[in-house]
Amino acid sequence: MHKYIEQIFISSKKESRLIIGLMSGTSLDGLDVALCKISNSGIKTKVELLNFTTVDYDDNYKNKIKAVFAQQKTDLEQVTLLNPWVGTLHGAMVNQCLAKWKVAAGEIDVIASHGQTIYHCPAHQHGIEDFGNGTLQIGDSCHLAVKTGIITLADFRQKHIAAGGEGAPLAVYGDYLLFSSPQENRVLLNMGGIANLTYLPKSTDPSVVFSSDIGPGNTIMDAYVQQHFSGLHYDKDSEIARKGEINQNLLNALKINNFFLMAMPKTTGPEVFNLAYLQRAQCASNTQDLSHNDILATLNRFSAEIIALAINQCTEKLGQFSLYASGGGIHNPLLMEHILSLAPQITIIHNTQVLGIEPDAKEAVLFAILANECLAGHAENFGNPAQGIPKTTMGKISFPI
Protein backbone atom coordinates (compact mmCIF):
# COMPACT_ATOMS: atom_id res chain seq x y z
CA MET A 1 0.00 0.00 0.00
CA HIS A 2 1.22 3.52 -0.80
CA LYS A 3 2.47 5.07 2.44
CA TYR A 4 0.24 8.13 2.16
CA ILE A 5 -2.84 6.03 1.40
CA GLU A 6 -2.03 4.04 4.51
CA GLN A 7 -1.60 7.30 6.43
CA ILE A 8 -5.04 8.50 5.30
CA PHE A 9 -6.55 5.17 6.31
CA ILE A 10 -5.00 5.43 9.77
CA SER A 11 -6.19 9.04 10.13
CA SER A 12 -9.73 8.08 9.16
CA LYS A 13 -9.89 5.56 12.01
CA LYS A 14 -8.65 7.90 14.73
CA GLU A 15 -10.93 9.18 17.45
CA SER A 16 -9.69 12.68 16.62
CA ARG A 17 -7.59 14.31 13.93
CA LEU A 18 -5.42 17.44 13.71
CA ILE A 19 -6.47 19.35 10.59
CA ILE A 20 -5.30 22.75 9.39
CA GLY A 21 -8.03 24.72 7.63
CA LEU A 22 -6.98 27.44 5.19
CA MET A 23 -9.22 30.18 3.85
CA SER A 24 -8.29 33.00 1.49
CA GLY A 25 -11.27 35.16 0.72
CA THR A 26 -12.17 37.74 -1.88
CA SER A 27 -11.08 40.57 0.42
CA LEU A 28 -7.44 39.51 -0.13
CA ASP A 29 -6.46 40.63 3.35
CA GLY A 30 -4.59 37.46 4.25
CA LEU A 31 -4.57 33.69 4.66
CA ASP A 32 -6.68 32.44 7.57
CA VAL A 33 -4.93 29.47 9.21
CA ALA A 34 -6.89 27.42 11.74
CA LEU A 35 -5.37 24.46 13.60
CA CYS A 36 -8.30 22.27 14.62
CA LYS A 37 -8.67 19.13 16.68
CA ILE A 38 -11.70 17.40 15.20
CA SER A 39 -13.37 14.39 16.78
CA ASN A 40 -15.87 12.00 15.18
CA SER A 41 -17.76 13.02 12.04
CA GLY A 42 -21.25 13.85 10.82
CA ILE A 43 -23.66 15.17 13.42
CA LYS A 44 -21.32 13.92 16.15
CA THR A 45 -18.52 16.23 14.96
CA LYS A 46 -16.72 18.16 17.70
CA VAL A 47 -14.15 20.88 16.99
CA GLU A 48 -11.56 22.40 19.27
CA LEU A 49 -9.77 25.41 17.76
CA LEU A 50 -6.22 25.04 19.03
CA ASN A 51 -4.63 27.97 17.19
CA PHE A 52 -5.72 30.59 14.71
CA THR A 53 -4.06 33.45 12.88
CA THR A 54 -4.39 35.47 9.71
CA VAL A 55 -1.12 35.79 7.79
CA ASP A 56 -1.32 39.15 6.05
CA TYR A 57 -0.77 39.37 2.31
CA ASP A 58 1.70 41.94 1.07
CA ASP A 59 0.97 44.32 -1.80
CA ASN A 60 2.82 42.03 -4.22
CA TYR A 61 0.32 39.22 -3.60
CA LYS A 62 -2.68 41.52 -3.71
CA ASN A 63 -1.63 43.15 -6.96
CA LYS A 64 -0.91 39.82 -8.67
CA ILE A 65 -4.30 38.39 -7.71
CA LYS A 66 -6.20 41.59 -8.51
CA ALA A 67 -4.79 41.46 -12.04
CA VAL A 68 -6.76 38.26 -12.73
CA PHE A 69 -9.50 38.38 -10.07
CA ALA A 70 -13.13 38.43 -11.27
CA GLN A 71 -11.99 39.41 -14.78
CA GLN A 72 -14.00 37.97 -17.66
CA LYS A 73 -10.98 38.49 -19.91
CA THR A 74 -7.55 38.00 -18.40
CA ASP A 75 -3.98 36.86 -19.03
CA LEU A 76 -4.02 33.05 -19.25
CA GLU A 77 -0.25 32.84 -18.81
CA GLN A 78 -0.53 34.82 -15.57
CA VAL A 79 -3.26 32.50 -14.26
CA THR A 80 -1.16 29.46 -15.15
CA LEU A 81 1.87 30.83 -13.32
CA LEU A 82 -0.10 32.03 -10.30
CA ASN A 83 -1.62 28.60 -9.62
CA PRO A 84 1.62 26.94 -8.37
CA TRP A 85 2.96 30.23 -6.98
CA VAL A 86 -0.04 30.68 -4.67
CA GLY A 87 0.10 27.03 -3.58
CA THR A 88 3.77 27.30 -2.69
CA LEU A 89 3.27 30.62 -0.88
CA HIS A 90 0.39 29.25 1.16
CA GLY A 91 2.56 26.28 2.06
CA ALA A 92 5.30 28.59 3.29
CA MET A 93 2.76 30.46 5.40
CA VAL A 94 1.59 27.20 6.97
CA ASN A 95 5.20 26.33 7.78
CA GLN A 96 5.62 29.72 9.46
CA CYS A 97 2.53 29.14 11.59
CA LEU A 98 3.63 25.66 12.63
CA ALA A 99 7.05 26.99 13.66
CA LYS A 100 5.40 29.79 15.66
CA TRP A 101 3.02 27.35 17.34
CA LYS A 102 5.82 24.82 17.94
CA VAL A 103 3.86 22.08 16.17
CA ALA A 104 5.68 19.55 13.98
CA ALA A 105 4.34 18.90 10.48
CA GLY A 106 4.28 15.20 11.27
CA GLU A 107 1.61 15.81 13.92
CA ILE A 108 -0.87 17.14 11.34
CA ASP A 109 -3.17 14.66 9.65
CA VAL A 110 -4.11 16.85 6.68
CA ILE A 111 -4.37 20.41 5.43
CA ALA A 112 -7.73 21.59 4.06
CA SER A 113 -7.08 24.35 1.53
CA HIS A 114 -9.81 26.48 0.01
CA GLY A 115 -7.38 28.12 -2.42
CA GLN A 116 -7.85 31.59 -3.87
CA THR A 117 -11.03 32.17 -5.82
CA ILE A 118 -10.42 34.14 -9.00
CA TYR A 119 -13.74 33.55 -10.77
CA HIS A 120 -17.16 32.24 -9.75
CA CYS A 121 -19.62 31.65 -12.56
CA PRO A 122 -22.97 29.92 -11.86
CA ALA A 123 -25.17 29.15 -14.86
CA HIS A 124 -27.74 31.83 -13.99
CA GLN A 125 -24.94 34.39 -14.18
CA HIS A 126 -23.25 33.46 -17.47
CA GLY A 127 -26.34 32.27 -19.35
CA ILE A 128 -24.26 30.47 -21.97
CA GLU A 129 -25.96 27.50 -23.60
CA ASP A 130 -24.30 24.09 -23.12
CA PHE A 131 -22.42 25.21 -20.00
CA GLY A 132 -23.38 24.61 -16.40
CA ASN A 133 -22.06 26.04 -13.15
CA GLY A 134 -18.39 26.89 -12.89
CA THR A 135 -15.90 28.25 -10.39
CA LEU A 136 -12.11 28.50 -10.24
CA GLN A 137 -9.79 28.55 -7.26
CA ILE A 138 -6.02 28.67 -7.72
CA GLY A 139 -3.27 27.64 -5.31
CA ASP A 140 -2.26 24.17 -6.44
CA SER A 141 -2.57 21.62 -3.64
CA CYS A 142 0.34 19.48 -4.84
CA HIS A 143 2.71 22.42 -4.40
CA LEU A 144 1.21 23.10 -0.96
CA ALA A 145 1.63 19.45 0.05
CA VAL A 146 5.23 19.30 -1.16
CA LYS A 147 6.11 22.59 0.54
CA THR A 148 4.72 21.48 3.91
CA GLY A 149 5.23 17.73 3.74
CA ILE A 150 1.55 17.33 4.75
CA ILE A 151 -1.23 15.56 2.84
CA THR A 152 -3.48 18.29 1.45
CA LEU A 153 -7.17 18.25 0.52
CA ALA A 154 -8.33 21.05 -1.78
CA ASP A 155 -10.58 22.12 -4.65
CA PHE A 156 -13.71 21.37 -2.61
CA ARG A 157 -16.02 23.44 -4.80
CA GLN A 158 -15.53 21.33 -7.94
CA LYS A 159 -17.07 18.23 -6.37
CA HIS A 160 -20.00 20.28 -5.16
CA ILE A 161 -20.67 21.40 -8.73
CA ALA A 162 -20.13 17.91 -10.15
CA ALA A 163 -22.69 16.57 -7.67
CA GLY A 164 -25.30 19.14 -8.70
CA GLY A 165 -24.57 22.28 -6.68
CA GLU A 166 -23.29 25.72 -7.66
CA GLY A 167 -19.97 25.39 -5.81
CA ALA A 168 -21.17 27.71 -3.03
CA PRO A 169 -21.96 28.40 -0.32
CA LEU A 170 -20.22 25.42 1.27
CA ALA A 171 -20.59 26.80 4.80
CA VAL A 172 -23.91 25.00 5.16
CA TYR A 173 -22.21 21.63 5.69
CA GLY A 174 -20.14 22.79 8.64
CA ASP A 175 -22.90 25.05 9.94
CA TYR A 176 -25.34 22.15 10.05
CA LEU A 177 -22.90 19.68 11.62
CA LEU A 178 -21.57 22.13 14.23
CA PHE A 179 -24.31 24.60 15.00
CA SER A 180 -27.69 22.89 14.60
CA SER A 181 -29.69 23.02 17.83
CA PRO A 182 -32.95 21.27 18.79
CA GLN A 183 -33.55 24.08 21.31
CA GLU A 184 -33.15 27.15 19.10
CA ASN A 185 -33.94 28.38 15.59
CA ARG A 186 -30.72 29.79 14.20
CA VAL A 187 -29.53 31.85 11.26
CA LEU A 188 -25.77 31.88 10.63
CA LEU A 189 -24.79 35.06 8.78
CA ASN A 190 -21.35 35.40 7.23
CA MET A 191 -20.37 38.82 5.90
CA GLY A 192 -17.23 38.53 3.84
CA GLY A 193 -16.83 40.09 0.41
CA ILE A 194 -20.13 38.44 -0.42
CA ALA A 195 -22.69 37.93 2.35
CA ASN A 196 -24.33 34.54 2.84
CA LEU A 197 -26.55 32.90 5.40
CA THR A 198 -27.44 29.41 6.59
CA TYR A 199 -30.96 28.67 7.80
CA LEU A 200 -31.04 26.20 10.72
CA PRO A 201 -34.51 25.62 12.21
CA LYS A 202 -34.55 23.83 15.55
CA SER A 203 -36.27 20.84 13.98
CA THR A 204 -32.75 20.01 12.68
CA ASP A 205 -34.55 18.50 9.67
CA PRO A 206 -32.02 18.59 6.80
CA SER A 207 -34.83 18.80 4.25
CA VAL A 208 -35.55 22.41 5.30
CA VAL A 209 -31.97 23.55 5.92
CA PHE A 210 -30.45 25.74 3.24
CA SER A 211 -27.62 28.19 2.62
CA SER A 212 -27.57 31.05 0.16
CA ASP A 213 -25.54 33.98 -0.98
CA ILE A 214 -27.38 37.24 -0.36
CA GLY A 215 -25.37 39.79 -2.30
CA PRO A 216 -22.48 42.14 -1.53
CA GLY A 217 -21.12 42.27 1.98
CA ASN A 218 -17.86 44.22 2.01
CA THR A 219 -16.68 43.72 -1.56
CA ILE A 220 -17.79 47.00 -3.19
CA MET A 221 -17.06 49.08 -0.08
CA ASP A 222 -13.54 47.67 0.23
CA ALA A 223 -12.81 48.10 -3.48
CA TYR A 224 -14.00 51.71 -3.35
CA VAL A 225 -11.82 52.53 -0.34
CA GLN A 226 -8.79 50.94 -1.97
CA GLN A 227 -9.36 52.92 -5.16
CA HIS A 228 -9.88 56.33 -3.56
CA PHE A 229 -8.02 56.27 -0.22
CA SER A 230 -4.33 55.52 -0.61
CA GLY A 231 -2.97 53.09 1.95
CA LEU A 232 -6.40 52.01 3.23
CA HIS A 233 -7.87 48.58 2.50
CA TYR A 234 -11.27 49.07 4.15
CA ASP A 235 -13.36 51.65 6.01
CA LYS A 236 -12.07 51.01 9.52
CA ASP A 237 -14.77 51.47 12.17
CA SER A 238 -17.02 52.96 9.43
CA GLU A 239 -15.21 56.28 9.89
CA ILE A 240 -15.59 57.36 6.25
CA ALA A 241 -19.18 56.21 5.80
CA ARG A 242 -20.33 57.90 9.01
CA LYS A 243 -19.26 61.28 7.61
CA GLY A 244 -21.53 60.85 4.59
CA GLU A 245 -25.24 60.84 3.87
CA ILE A 246 -27.21 58.04 2.21
CA ASN A 247 -28.31 59.00 -1.29
CA GLN A 248 -31.69 57.41 -1.93
CA ASN A 249 -31.48 57.66 -5.72
CA LEU A 250 -28.18 55.78 -5.82
CA LEU A 251 -29.44 53.28 -3.24
CA ASN A 252 -32.51 52.55 -5.36
CA ALA A 253 -30.36 52.04 -8.45
CA LEU A 254 -28.00 49.68 -6.61
CA LYS A 255 -30.93 47.49 -5.60
CA ILE A 256 -32.06 46.94 -9.20
CA ASN A 257 -30.65 43.54 -10.15
CA ASN A 258 -32.33 40.27 -11.10
CA PHE A 259 -30.22 38.46 -8.52
CA PHE A 260 -32.25 40.02 -5.71
CA LEU A 261 -35.48 38.69 -7.26
CA MET A 262 -34.24 35.08 -7.40
CA ALA A 263 -35.40 32.63 -4.75
CA MET A 264 -32.84 31.31 -2.28
CA PRO A 265 -30.58 29.37 -2.48
CA LYS A 266 -28.45 31.21 -5.03
CA THR A 267 -24.82 32.23 -5.46
CA THR A 268 -22.98 35.25 -6.79
CA GLY A 269 -19.64 37.03 -6.47
CA PRO A 270 -17.52 40.12 -7.19
CA GLU A 271 -17.84 39.20 -10.86
CA VAL A 272 -21.27 40.89 -10.58
CA PHE A 273 -21.00 43.20 -7.59
CA ASN A 274 -17.96 45.38 -8.17
CA LEU A 275 -16.92 48.96 -8.95
CA ALA A 276 -18.31 48.68 -12.47
CA TYR A 277 -21.68 47.79 -10.91
CA LEU A 278 -21.45 50.92 -8.76
CA GLN A 279 -20.54 53.07 -11.78
CA ARG A 280 -23.54 51.81 -13.74
CA ALA A 281 -25.82 52.58 -10.80
CA GLN A 282 -24.36 56.09 -10.54
CA CYS A 283 -24.96 56.70 -14.24
CA ALA A 284 -28.52 55.39 -13.98
CA SER A 285 -29.25 57.63 -10.98
CA ASN A 286 -27.23 60.64 -12.16
CA THR A 287 -25.16 60.60 -8.96
CA GLN A 288 -21.64 60.77 -10.39
CA ASP A 289 -20.84 63.90 -8.39
CA LEU A 290 -21.42 62.45 -4.94
CA SER A 291 -18.65 62.74 -2.37
CA HIS A 292 -16.65 59.68 -1.37
CA ASN A 293 -18.28 59.85 2.06
CA ASP A 294 -21.80 59.84 0.61
CA ILE A 295 -20.99 56.94 -1.71
CA LEU A 296 -19.59 54.83 1.14
CA ALA A 297 -22.54 55.72 3.35
CA THR A 298 -24.88 54.57 0.57
CA LEU A 299 -22.90 51.38 -0.15
CA ASN A 300 -22.98 50.52 3.55
CA ARG A 301 -26.75 50.94 3.64
CA PHE A 302 -27.08 48.93 0.41
CA SER A 303 -25.29 45.92 1.91
CA ALA A 304 -27.35 46.22 5.09
CA GLU A 305 -30.67 46.39 3.25
CA ILE A 306 -30.10 43.34 1.09
CA ILE A 307 -28.80 41.39 4.11
CA ALA A 308 -31.77 42.38 6.27
CA LEU A 309 -34.21 41.61 3.45
CA ALA A 310 -32.86 38.06 3.15
CA ILE A 311 -32.99 37.53 6.93
CA ASN A 312 -36.56 38.83 7.07
CA GLN A 313 -37.66 36.66 4.14
CA CYS A 314 -36.30 33.38 5.45
CA THR A 315 -37.44 33.91 9.04
CA GLU A 316 -40.89 35.31 8.32
CA LYS A 317 -42.67 32.14 9.53
CA LEU A 318 -39.96 30.92 11.86
CA GLY A 319 -41.01 32.65 15.07
CA GLN A 320 -38.23 33.37 17.53
CA PHE A 321 -34.69 32.82 16.29
CA SER A 322 -31.12 33.82 17.07
CA LEU A 323 -28.71 35.41 14.58
CA TYR A 324 -25.02 34.51 14.77
CA ALA A 325 -22.62 36.54 12.61
CA SER A 326 -19.09 36.06 11.36
CA GLY A 327 -16.78 37.49 8.71
CA GLY A 328 -15.22 40.92 8.24
CA GLY A 329 -18.61 42.65 8.29
CA ILE A 330 -18.93 42.17 12.04
CA HIS A 331 -16.11 44.72 12.41
CA ASN A 332 -18.13 47.35 10.50
CA PRO A 333 -20.20 49.00 13.26
CA LEU A 334 -22.39 51.07 10.93
CA LEU A 335 -23.29 47.99 8.88
CA MET A 336 -24.27 46.14 12.06
CA GLU A 337 -26.37 49.10 13.26
CA HIS A 338 -28.20 49.26 9.95
CA ILE A 339 -28.99 45.54 9.98
CA LEU A 340 -30.42 45.77 13.50
CA SER A 341 -32.60 48.72 12.51
CA LEU A 342 -33.89 46.94 9.40
CA ALA A 343 -34.69 43.60 11.07
CA PRO A 344 -36.92 44.53 14.00
CA GLN A 345 -37.32 40.93 15.16
CA ILE A 346 -33.60 40.92 16.03
CA THR A 347 -32.64 42.58 19.31
CA ILE A 348 -29.03 41.44 19.33
CA ILE A 349 -26.57 40.04 16.81
CA HIS A 350 -24.37 37.41 18.43
CA ASN A 351 -21.09 36.38 16.89
CA THR A 352 -20.09 32.75 16.63
CA GLN A 353 -17.70 33.07 19.58
CA VAL A 354 -20.66 32.27 21.84
CA LEU A 355 -20.99 28.99 19.94
CA GLY A 356 -17.33 28.17 20.50
CA ILE A 357 -15.82 29.29 17.20
CA GLU A 358 -13.96 32.58 16.78
CA PRO A 359 -15.88 34.47 14.07
CA ASP A 360 -12.79 35.41 12.05
CA ALA A 361 -11.74 31.75 12.04
CA LYS A 362 -15.11 30.28 11.12
CA GLU A 363 -14.59 29.78 7.38
CA ALA A 364 -11.17 28.18 7.81
CA VAL A 365 -12.64 25.87 10.46
CA LEU A 366 -15.50 24.92 8.14
CA PHE A 367 -13.07 23.77 5.45
CA ALA A 368 -11.27 21.68 8.07
CA ILE A 369 -14.66 20.07 8.75
CA LEU A 370 -15.12 19.33 5.03
CA ALA A 371 -11.73 17.61 5.03
CA ASN A 372 -12.70 15.65 8.13
CA GLU A 373 -15.88 14.47 6.40
CA CYS A 374 -13.84 13.39 3.39
CA LEU A 375 -11.57 11.33 5.64
CA ALA A 376 -13.96 9.93 8.21
CA GLY A 377 -17.51 10.83 7.27
CA HIS A 378 -20.18 9.53 4.97
CA ALA A 379 -21.98 11.34 2.16
CA GLU A 380 -25.35 10.40 3.61
CA ASN A 381 -24.62 12.28 6.85
CA PHE A 382 -26.20 15.45 5.53
CA GLY A 383 -27.54 16.87 2.33
CA ASN A 384 -30.53 18.53 0.75
CA PRO A 385 -30.33 18.22 -3.05
CA ALA A 386 -33.59 20.14 -3.51
CA GLN A 387 -31.90 23.14 -1.89
CA GLY A 388 -28.63 22.83 -3.81
CA ILE A 389 -26.84 20.84 -1.08
CA PRO A 390 -25.64 17.59 -2.68
CA LYS A 391 -25.15 14.56 -0.43
CA THR A 392 -21.46 14.21 -1.07
CA THR A 393 -18.05 14.52 0.48
CA MET A 394 -15.60 16.95 -1.11
CA GLY A 395 -11.89 17.48 -1.57
CA LYS A 396 -9.14 16.30 -3.93
CA ILE A 397 -6.17 14.67 -2.20
CA SER A 398 -2.56 15.67 -2.90
CA PHE A 399 0.39 13.77 -1.47
CA PRO A 400 3.78 15.23 -0.53
CA ILE A 401 6.83 13.81 -2.31
Q: What general outline do the C-alpha atoms trace? A: globular
Structural class: alpha/beta
Instruction: Flag low-confidence runs.
Output: none
Mean pLDDT: 94
Radius of gyration: 21 Å
Order of helices and strands: HEEEHHEHEHEHHEEEHHHHHEHEHE
CATH top level class name of the largest domain: Alpha Beta
Q: What profile does the largest beta sheet have?
A: 7 strands, mixed
Question: Count the helices. How many?
Answer: 14
The number of distinct structural domains comes to 2
**How much of the residues is beta strand, in percent?**
15-25%
Provide a short characterization of the protein structure.
The strands form 2 sheets. Strands 1, 2, 3, 4, 5, 6 and 12 form a 7-stranded mixed β-sheet that branches. By secondary structure, the chain is of the alpha/beta class.
Reconstruct the topology from this structure.
Elements: H1 3-13, E1 16-24, E2 30-39, E3 46-56, H2 59-66, H3 76-101, E4 110-121, H4 123-126, E5 134-138, H5 141-148, E6 152-154, H6 156-162, H7 171-179, E7 186-191, E8 194-200, E9 210-216, H8 219-228, H9 239-242, H10 248-254, H11 275-285, H12 292-315, E10 322-326, H13 333-342, E11 349-351, H14 362-376, E12 396-398
Parallel strand pairs: 1-4, 4-6, 7-10, 10-11
Antiparallel strand pairs: 1-2, 2-3, 4-5, 6-12, 7-8, 8-9
Helix pairs in contact: 3-5, 7-14, 8-12, 10-11, 10-12, 12-13
